[in-house]
Amino acid sequence: MSLLLAIVPIIVVVLLLSGILFAFKPKKKKPVMGVKKTKWIVGSYAVILIIATVLSFLLPIDRNTAGKSLSKSEVDKIQKVQDSIYGSISNGRFKEQEFKGALIKKKSWSFPFNEKALTFSLRNPDNFSPSILVEKTNAREIQGIYYVGKAIVDGIDVTDKISSPTIHLNHSSLIIGNPDAKEVKFAKFSTAFSFDQFSGKPTVFNHESYGIFGIDILYLKVPKNVQITGDYHPVN
Amino acid sequence: MYLAEVNAWDIVKKQYQYKLQSYMGVFTSLIVIQIIAILFSFNGTGMSGGGSSTFSYSLNYYSGSMILIFTMIWGLITAIIITSKAYRYDDYSFITNRGTTHTSNLLFLLSASIFAGITVLLCTHFIQVLYIYSVNSESVMFEQLTIIQNLKGISGTILYIFFFTSIGYFIGSLIQISRLFIFVLPVLFFGAVIADGLGKEQSMIPHVIKFFGNESSFGLFILKILAASALMYGFAIIISKKLEVRP
Amino acid sequence: MKVVECKDLTKVYGRSNALNNLSFSIEENKITGLIGRNGAGKTTLLKIMAGFLHHSSGEIKVFEETPFNNLKVSANSIFIDNEMSFPPALSLKELLITAGSFYPYWDQKLADRLFDYFSFNPNIRHGNLSKGMKSTFNMIVGLAARCPLTIFDEPTSGMDSGVRKDFYRAVLKDYLAHPRSIILSSHLVEEVEDLLEDILLIKEGEKCLHMPVEDLKEYAVGISGKTAIVDEVLSGKDIIFEQSIGTDSTYVVIKKDGSQKELEKAEESGLELTAVSIDNLCLYLTSKTTGGIDHVFS
């Protein structure tokens, strides 16, 4: 955007000058197209643009994954909810419904479990260390749920671009592997500033990148009497 | 001898039809300007990136703003051209007076602004299609607007272009009064830009841009733009009273 | 009803007066010739009539309205000159159709027939025409518009003599079929005098005379003979033009106002009386001095 703002004055000046010079050249010397030919050209241009517009709605992209753009205030709301998650966790409470819209359930696993002890290990803690929450249950299995905080880049919901970690249960040790490293290139198309102006979106004049990112929660349900080794937050 | 009684509005309508035909050339220049703007926009208007070790992103922005700005300048220049002698005298080969000339010019510029405003929106879709078919396998986000947002956006776009035609109409009328303005106006413009650059506080031009550009209330925006356009056209009409119609 | 009425009409350009206290009126359905030298103010006067220019003082009424910036006058009059400007995007045919959409009395058939007669290419642009062809095309617009007041300012400039004759004939025929007020300016009186009913002669922005062509033919008389006798007979007369022929003869044009007797007396005393052509009379009346170019060399 700042690039746009930087070159605009130059373009303005060049176009202005050339336009004025063009405007005051003696008119009769200029070859002029006839009305019919001009109508034809303008008509074809309009038709091409209309076809392109229709095509753009039929493009082979999934419009749902492409995502809706969120306004700053919407993002702020989500951020607020996300901020409350950790407080909640340290108080030993975690209710999925409370964080609805801010936390997305990405993946779940379940393993039958009969051991007396359980050890967590992160395969690569430098790169991936989710908060691990543990709830003791009566079931005879381990259930794992991976939650990811709604990830928003510049108003675009990119949550479903984030991949989930892997979990392997090997006797009494639960190995948590990194999600596949993912690099996503986005192209964000927006209409002209006159469209953003009345839709509560940032305009060229008050543009700021806003987004939220980086909440990883692995929620585990572990049988009651299992001895657990590793960093975790007991909840519920 | 029977004198024909004429109705000014009838003549305005006829002149408007006549201008739609004879000024058709301005639309070919619109096409050229928008194609240039599409080419500029196709490089992207900005980028950002970020992420963690497991997820990283780079975001390229493509916006229709460049197309709109180019089109606004087209509107400005079109209006200046229409006030030039060559175009004014064409009116006087047929029935006219100043009132009908100004009114039909205004109607023509309004129609041109509407056409240009709609094409600005269509051009942004054109860029999307061009992008999808030439640069594939990336995630593409379209800013999705509701119908209401789209309608407001189109109206806003048209009003921006129309406002620029009114500025052009005013500038053109000044130039018709005295050719000196061809030199004076750019000097004033650059003077203001340079003064803005030198001074620590932002002055006129950014203020003017923000006055319109930061108005997020659609109703107030319409009011501001229409009032400013009316002012420009009003000045132009007053100025042109000093001119003889066809020396 | 008077079509055009001027009272003390004055137009000032800078320090000089293009028109100076001009007063006249033109009745409806007449063909009037506006005659004058180059720079006499013909074009200025016609443009004021057409509503193109402001006048500086005095009064002008066209159809009883002030013409400047007046839609009614614009709708009922048309001003044809060779500087008429048409949009370059439109072909000649499209221009005729456009003109037809504007002028309420437009005769498309006449326009088409004249267009074919002068073998115009309908697809060509006005800007690409030669000067003469431009004038011819403008004339077609002027005639077919059938405006109650049709003004031709030097309409034949650039036309070859054949087209000129056709033009005058076309004006006359169409005028007879559809009488209206036509004002035609020219500095070539000879060509138009058969066409005109009235002549308005102006000199340096002032009215010289305004009368029917028939009267103008009887307005003056030329007298030639020995200088001594001429001087004697003409003492105290209103001399319009004077030219010495050879060493002792003179040709004088005087206004015919006195009694027939005086002229007969002049004839008796050996002077020769001749009629003065309108063409020459207009020249004499509008020249700056009575002596003509000879004075420069004497």
Automatic annotation (TrEMBL), chain A:
It comes from the Bacteria. Keywords: Membrane, Transmembrane, Transmembrane helix. The chain crosses the membrane at residues 6-24, 40-61. The keyword Transmembrane helix applies. This is Uncharacterized protein.
From TrEMBL, chain B:
It comes from the Bacteria. Keywords: Membrane, Transmembrane, Transmembrane helix. The chain crosses the membrane at residues 23-42, 62-84, 105-133, 153-171, 180-198, 218-239. Coiled coil: none annotated. The keyword Secreted does not apply. This is ABC transporter permease. The lineage of its organism: Bacteria, Bacillati, Bacillota, Bacilli, Bacillales.
Automatic annotation (TrEMBL), chain C:
SUPFAM superfamilies: P-loop containing nucleoside triphosphate hydrolases. Pfam families: ABC_tran (PF00005). Keywords: ATP-binding, Nucleotide-binding, Transport. InterPro entries: AAA+_ATPase, ABC_transporter-like_ATP-bd, ABC_Transporter_VariousFunc, P-loop_NTPase. Residues 4-229 form the ABC transporter domain. One of its GO terms (molecular function) is ATP binding. This is ABC-2 type transport system ATP-binding protein.
